[in-house]
Amino acid sequence: MVTSTPVTAPAAPVRAPVAGRAPARASGWQRHRWTILRVLSPLALLGLWQLGSFLGLIPERILPAPTLIADAGLELVGNGQLADALLVSGTRVVQGLLIGGAIGIALGALVGLSRFAEATVDPPLQMLRALPHLGLIPLFILWFGIGETPKILLVALGVAFPLYLNTFSGIRQIDRKYFETARVLGFTWWQRFRTIILPSTAPQVLVGLRQSLAIAWLSLIVAEQINSDAGIGFIINNARDFLRVDTIIFGLVVYALMGIATDGIVRLLEARALRYRTDARA
C-alpha cells in the first residue's frame, strides 16, 4: 500500500516592512530639529522679553519692549535716515577693509615666503599686534584729527592682523615638496603662486577675512563715536542725547545684522572658491 506524503504549500516570503510616511516625517524632524531649535530659541527669548515688558517686570527706560524697538527702526526707515547711515558706515568698513586687507595679506605673504622678512618684519608687527588697537584712538585723533581718516584707519588696523596671521600660517603650512617639484619642472614665480601658493592659502585667508570683518564692525562701533556727523554711530549718539534707548538698541542690532550679513557673503564666497575640496571629498 502506497501512502502519499502530503504536499505542504511553500511559505509566503517574508517581506521587509515598507517605510511609511510616519517614519519619513520622524527622520525629517531628526534631520532638521537643530535648525528648527536654532530658529525657535531667539523667538522664544523675544517672546519672554515682550511679556516681561508688558507685565512691567522690565523697566522701559532700561530695556524697551521689542515692539518699541521695532517702531523706532520703522521710524528711521521711513524718514530715510537708516539708508543714509548704512551707506556711510558701509563705505567706512569697505575702505578700512581694503586698506587693512591689502597690507595684511602683503605682509603675511612677505614674511611667509622669506626667512629674512620673518626675522626682521615679524617682531615689530607682533609688538604692534599686542597693543589694543581701540586704545590708540586718542593718538589717532591727535595725529589725524576728527574727520574720516582716523575712523577708516582704526578699522584698517583691526582688519590687518587676522589676515596677516592667516596668510603667514597658510604659506608656512604648504608642503615643501610642492615647491621642489615646481623647481624641477621649471615653474616661474607666477606659476608657483597661481598653482601652489594661492590654492593652498585660500582656505586660511578666507577664515582670516571672516575674522577681519567681525573686527571691522566692532572697530566701527567705537570709531563712529568720534565726533561723527553721519553713519549709524551718529544716530546712536543723537539717540543718547535724547534718551532714546529704543533707537540706541536698534542701532546696535543694525551693527550686528550687518556683521552677520557680511560674514554670510564671505561664507558663500568660501563655498564657491573652495568647491573643489567638496568635490574631492565626494
Automatic annotation (TrEMBL):
<feature type="transmembrane region" description="Helical">
    <location>
        <begin position="214"/>
        <end position="236"/>
    </location>
</feature>
<dbReference type="InterPro" id="IPR035906">
    <property type="entry name" value="MetI-like_sf"/>
</dbReference>
<feature type="transmembrane region" description="Helical">
    <location>
        <begin position="128"/>
        <end position="146"/>
    </location>
</feature>
<feature type="transmembrane region" description="Helical">
    <location>
        <begin position="35"/>
        <end position="58"/>
    </location>
</feature>
<feature type="domain" description="ABC transmembrane type-1">
    <location>
        <begin position="82"/>
        <end position="266"/>
    </location>
</feature>
<keyword id="KW-0472">Membrane</keyword>
<feature type="transmembrane region" description="Helical">
    <location>
        <begin position="152"/>
        <end position="171"/>
    </location>
</feature>
<keyword id="KW-1133">Transmembrane helix</keyword>
<dbReference type="GO" id="GO:0042918">
    <property type="term" value="P:alkanesulfonate transmembrane transport"/>
</dbReference>
<dbReference type="GO" id="GO:0005886">
    <property type="term" value="C:plasma membrane"/>
</dbReference>
<keyword id="KW-0812">Transmembrane</keyword>
<feature type="transmembrane region" description="Helical">
    <location>
        <begin position="93"/>
        <end position="116"/>
    </location>
</feature>
<keyword id="KW-0813">Transport</keyword>
<protein>
    <submittedName>
        <fullName>ABC transporter</fullName>
    </submittedName>
</protein>
<dbReference type="InterPro" id="IPR000515">
    <property type="entry name" value="MetI-like"/>
</dbReference>
<dbReference type="Pfam" id="PF00528">
    <property type="entry name" value="BPD_transp_1"/>
</dbReference>
<keyword id="KW-1003">Cell membrane</keyword>
<comment type="similarity">
    <text>Belongs to the binding-protein-dependent transport system permease family.</text>
</comment>
<feature type="transmembrane region" description="Helical">
    <location>
        <begin position="248"/>
        <end position="269"/>
    </location>
</feature>
